[in-house]
Amino acid sequence: MCTIYGYGDDIRRLISQENKSFNARFVLYDVYYCSSVGAGSMNGQQTYQSGFYGAQKGNLNHFDKILDLSGYAIDDCAVDSKGNMYWTDRLQKAIFKADVTGKKIEKIVSGFDIPIGLALDEKHQRLYWANWLQKSSHKSGVIGYTDISSKKSTIVFRNRLRSGGHLTVSDGKLYISDLFGGKILKMDLKDPVLRTVATTKQASQVTIAKKYEDLIWGDIAMDSILAIGLNGYDRRVIISFKNRFANPTSLIFDDQLDKLLFVSPVVNKGLGSSMIGGLHTIGIDGMHVKLLYSHSTLSFIQRLMIRGK
After folding, report:
1. Which of 26, 48, 145, 189 has the fewest CB atoms within 10 Å distance of its CB?
2. What is the CATH number of the domain that holds 281?
3. pTM for the model
4. Is 29 domain-assigned?
5. Does some domain include residue 188?
6. What own/partner pairs with CB < 8 Å and gap ≥ 24 does 125-134 have?
7. Which helix (H) or strand (E) holds 115?
8. The domain containing residue 249 runs over which residues?
């Protein structure tokens, strides 16, 4: 959801070339990400190059483009266990769903100011969302959910966040990072009471490592990935980045691989000193960092996902 600026037109040209060679493969993937970047303007309207990409866990050094969503301005996205894809669009102020083939696209809910956060509660077939009210005199975030089948929406709470929120659902709980509020909160899905899990400078995306009972998040102001026990203890830094432009833009813990997957910029030798998005793995102890894959589309990643998580 956090857009990286400063990559320049060379990156955008690479994405444009990649879009022209797009050849959809309608298969189920293990790991997904969605990417979205402004690509100029047309008739006074900002245009975007966006899409979903997927890879198998045994081959994370290659991602296929699954769905071309150029024209959508995506801030967040999700994928369910069946491979259905969901995303927010700030241009149409709505949330959309595409089936696994990408051929059937439907609007789930609209009427947002800026739909900045998205998380899937597959058990109850709900899409939790964060709406950032930037036009109000006091900027704040609203959290709610929409039933995927009936498309009926319910507001859970308002006026508790300074911004929209990066959302994650895990084991019946919703975790919310308040980007400009300096905190990460959690809420039981059966009991909509907000509790602060951790304070931080500028939290981006959050993920849960069930095996270790840890909450993990990226802080783009501290240029670090941090963790804390779900009980509120054992706070620690997993990795700090020396380059202030190398902060993590997306992350997710893979229980099967027992690794944290994260995306942060790396030097692209093909473009001189330019930076390009790179997918890495790291142990929860902060050891054994490994670069798996780099690509222009990762420079503008909105979310890294594991199917069904």
Report:
1. 26
2. 2.120.10.30
3. 0.88
4. yes
5. yes
6. 125/149, 127/78, 127/86, 127/95, 128/156, 128/167, 128/169, 128/174, 129/88, 129/95, 129/167, 130/161, 130/164, 130/165, 130/166, 130/167, 130/176, 131/164, 132/163, 132/164
7. strand 115-121
8. 9-306
Determine how many CB atoms are found less than 10 A away from the CB of residue 266.
Answer: 18
- Tokens representing 18 are 């990649």
Q: Give the single-character DSSP code of 211.
A: G
What's the structural domain count of the chain? Answer: 1
Q: pLDDT tens digit string along 73-131?
A: 999 999 999 999 999 999 999 999 999 999 999 999 999 999 989 999 999 999 999 99
Unique residue bearing structure tokens 């059966």: 190
How is 117-172 classified by DSSP, letter by letter?
EEEEETTTTEEEEEEEE-SSSS-EEEEEEEETTT--EEEEEEEEESS-EEEEEETT
pLDDT in tens, 129-164: 999 886 655 567 889 999 999 999 999 988 777 776
What is the pLDDT, as a whole number, of residue 7? 37
- The stretch 39-55 carries a mean pLDDT of 77
Query: d(Cα 163, Cα 130) in Å, to the nearest integer?
Result: 9
Beta bridge partners of 106: 97
Mean pLDDT, the chain, integer: 86
For residue 12, the 8-state DSSP code is: H
CB 95 within 8 A of CB 85: no
Does residue 3 fall inside a structural domain? no
Within-domain flag for 1: no
